[in-house]
Amino acid sequence: MNSTCPYCGVGCGVTVTSRAGAVQVSGDGEHPANAGRLCVKGAALADTLGETGRLRYPHVNGSRVSWETALDAVASGLQQVIDQHGSQAVAFYASGQLLTEDYYVANKLMKGFIGAGNIDTNSRLCMASAVVGYKRAFGADAVPCSYADLDHADLVILCGSNTAWAHPVLWQRLVQAKLQRPAMQVVVIDPRRTASCDIADVHLALRAGSDAALFNGLLHWLAQQGTDSSMLPHLADVPTALDAASGWSPAQVAAYCQLSEEQVTAFYRAFASQRNVLTLYCMGINQSTSGSDKCNAIINCHLLSGKIGRNGSGPFSLTGQPNAMGGREVGGLATQLAAHMDFSAENVARLQRFWGSDRVAQQPGLSAVALFDAVARGEVKAIWIMGTNPAVSLPEASRVRQALAHCPLVIVSDVAAQTDTSELAHICLPAAAWGEKNGTVTNSERRISRQRAFVPPVGEARPDWWILAQVAQRLGFHQAFAWHHPAEIFCEHAALSGFENHGSRAFDISGLASLSVAEWDRLQPVQWPVNASAPQGTARLFSDRRFFHPDGRARLIAVTPRLPLAACTTAYPLLLNTGRIRDQWHTMTRTGQVPRLMQHVSEPYVAMHPQDAADYQLQARDLVRVQSSQGWMIARAVLTDDQPVGTLFAPMHWNCQFAAQSSVGALVAAQVCPLSGQPESKQTAVQIARWHSHWQGTLFSRDNVTFPDGVWWSRIPHTHATRYQLAGSGPLSALLSALDLNDMACQRMEGTNELRLLAWHDGELMLALWLGPRVPELDLAFIDAAFASPPTRAADRHALLGGRAAERENAGRTVCSCFGTGEQTILCAVAAGDNSLAALGARLKCGTNCGSCIPELKQLIARFPAHA
Ligand SMILES: Nc1nc2c(c(=O)[nH]1)N[C@H]1C(S)=C(S)[C@@H](COP(=O)(O)OP(=O)(O)OC[C@H]3O[C@@H](n4cnc5c(=O)[nH]c(N)nc54)[C@H](O)[C@@H]3O)O[C@H]1N2
Ligand SMILES: Nc1nc2c(c(=O)[nH]1)N[C@H]1C(S)=C(S)[C@@H](COP(=O)(O)OP(=O)(O)OC[C@H]3O[C@@H](n4cnc5c(=O)[nH]c(N)nc54)[C@H](O)[C@@H]3O)O[C@H]1N2
Ligand code: SF4
Ligand SMILES: [Mo]
């Protein structure tokens, strides 16, 4: 059966097969988004199925209860708050990872029937600026482009997007396009060098947060060069935008962006001279206190030059989450109603008619950061969080935790048994996970695809739409929430999109409003709009140069570039950037359970330039305390000249389930773009210092371990055991007593400042521990395997205590996650003459599946200069 990958906004189709009871997931060769390709996360989907780490039953105040009890508790809890404090005192915080049907029900319940605007979503942290950018420019939140544009572009600009790691299958398509048409230029705009620079002709490592000036300068340049005059009748507000851009000469841009004037003019020349230009932009643009303006600065250039609405051209905002777009369509953001309607009196009345409700919210609700502030102030007294983990992902995450800890009613719907957010919940509801639920998602190119259920839910997990509808009924809204099947919800949503639309709203899938359940089930991927005039969907918008403002013209927006609010000071001299790594998804609740996805990068880290490391007396792998004015974290130092001097990068993923004190969200300030409400997650001023410890260690354990205060730990699931990396300064006895070695037979080797220990129970290895002033180098795969088949000979046990098999070569850190190929293995092969991608692929297979590791393979090959 076919379904859709639940991770990123590329929206790859997958084919699910079952062989001898084991589920296998492969790329769907027929799906237009990926044509059979998958990245490592998609390829590892089968490993996320099953009960590991899942929430299986409803819980109230920590005790398992029946669904009846849990749903009654949710409904009566919400009702009580509404009765006492009004509907504004309750809120939903939802997610671009819900299915469209789930999302539609959540929005309908809050805005249509509870009657408040307070439903916002994690898309606020992600897409909100892109939405404002499109709406201001086009009069609608409508992505003009398609992935197929990559096959026609002459110049592709990746701006604030590490596509190679965050949208890997799209990146593979770009790599292929460049192979086929080497003349196609690729420009990467990113302060740091990333894996996406691998195929870049040019990397513009501009000053963090300075993109608006670069594009303002481009607008000015385009105006001076004389642009596509046929475009002008379709544009409004051109003079004011050009006026705002007029001061930005290449010299000024170069000084502001810390680039050379040659770099700037070469980029401008390329943009102006190439016919088809595609700008892909993502979090390096959106996550900013001037994110909306940055989006418009980019869109302005495409509009003025007419590089929009045709093959291979356009401003293409990449969506992060699998269904960020679906959320935008149903009104998941507190600032819109539903089906692309805003809160105008006309639209409120329209929705009242459609939903048959006289209590539709009249005004926008609180957006994410403001919402959690209102929780902190006690104004919002009940919050239902579904499909997101705000205690990790929101800025000032420690404040979010405190706010939740004091909130009278916190309800969490999640698939994971334990998250940093669910630890603070009064009511936990088990949601059906990917593979167990049925519905639709919309990817970055407006393509609606089906996610299909193929396994029964674990325990008593239920689909999110069902949970929401049950609560709605208990709140007294029976008829409006009486669906029996998600297909019915989809059809209602599709009907609403066409309701009194007459071409006024871009989002129109009225052509799908009368699907039968069987037709919905068979629905093939299709790009909206899908209506009477475009029954097969629409690949490209604005080919006719008609936009959605009432006069049909697009708007240029006057942009005044602003640098990040986060500014370095003597106390906080370094600028911390945050983002994604290749093999992890967000707060790791699913990908963190998959051993092979934990091997590429296993621990929270902070990347810095070697010069900065030297200034702070840091060495590679040291533990570093990173501190901002908001909070602090501990992470391992990675030294790389990919990182500009004076700047750091830390992944956003780690949290209290995977490491002690390593959540970067605690450091980021809750400063937002005034237009979009999106936080500035990419820039934080920080100081760093070595985190001193007397000992470090590696522990493998069959069971999870809780460590005493003062011990820093990070947890890394392997196939047969869990590994912990440890560090601390306290007495080792406190650590050893936390390990509870009572009933175990222990083999020890003690030296000065050093301890090695194996603990056995009934012939099974229970624990293996190495402690000392530095982490010893261990053969991790060999140790993990000993938990499945313990060595019996004394000599082998002795070797195990040494941490490595007597005769085995250490494969080193995993580079290729698909085939588990280690760095050492690759380096040996390169040294032996396999010094090309093809030769490595032929010998070790690495890089031949999803291709995400190719940039790293190339770097390893480059370490050995080719023989003359
Ligand atoms: N592996 C993986 N893939 C994912 C996700 C994941 O968790 N893991 N999450 C998905 C989601 S929800 C999202 S939103 C996307 C995000 O996808 P991306 O936006 O591509 O990923 P990020 O790593 O957040 O940030 C992108 C780049 O912005 C750069 N940047 C920082 N500041 C600036 C700046 O001032 N200007 C410019 N031009 N660039 C800057 C960063 O250095 C970084 O390389 O990824 C999606 N895909
Ligand atoms: N510093 C910093 N912070 C960031 C970012 C950054 O770049 N830097 N990026 C921001 C961005 S772009 C994003 S999108 C956010 C993401 O941040 P979050 O949304 O908080 O991260 P996730 O881990 O994806 O959370 C999804 C939750 O939903 C659960 N879940 C999975 N499937 C289902 C389901 O079907 N139903 C339900 N009910 N639950 C489910 C998962 O177990 C998990 O707990 O982080 C933001 N925060
Ligand atoms: S590129 Fe995105 S949608 Fe495709 S397989 Fe990877 S994570 Fe899934
Ligand atoms: Mo995102």
UniProtKB/TrEMBL annotation:
GO cellular component terms listed in the entry, alphabetical order: membrane; oxidoreductase complex
Gene Ontology BP terms: cellular respiration; nitrate assimilation
Pfam families reported for this sequence: Fer2_BFD (PF04324), Molybdop_Fe4S4 (PF04879), Molybdopterin (PF00384), Molydop_binding (PF01568)
PROSITE patterns according to UniProt: 4FE4S_MOW_BIS_MGD
Domain 4Fe-4S Mo/W bis-MGD-type: 1-53
An example Gene Ontology molecular-function term: metal ion binding
EC number: 1.7.99.4
Co-factor(s): Mo-bis(molybdopterin guanine dinucleotide); [4Fe-4S] cluster
SUPFAM superfamilies: ADC-like, Formate dehydrogenase/DMSO reductase, domains 1-3
InterPro entries: Asp_de-COase-like_dom_sf (IPR009010), BFD-like_2Fe2S-bd_dom (IPR007419), BFD-like_2Fe2S-bd_dom_sf (IPR041854), CT_Nitrate-R-NapA-like (IPR041957), MoPterin_dinucl-bd_dom (IPR006657), Mopterin_OxRdtase (IPR006656), Mopterin_OxRdtase_4Fe-4S_dom (IPR006963), Prok_molybdopt-oxidoreductase (IPR050123)
Keywords assigned: 4Fe-4S, Iron, Iron-sulfur, Metal-binding, Molybdenum, Nitrate assimilation, Oxidoreductase
Family: Belongs to the prokaryotic molybdopterin-containing oxidoreductase family. NasA/NapA/NarB subfamily.
Record's protein name: Nitrate reductase
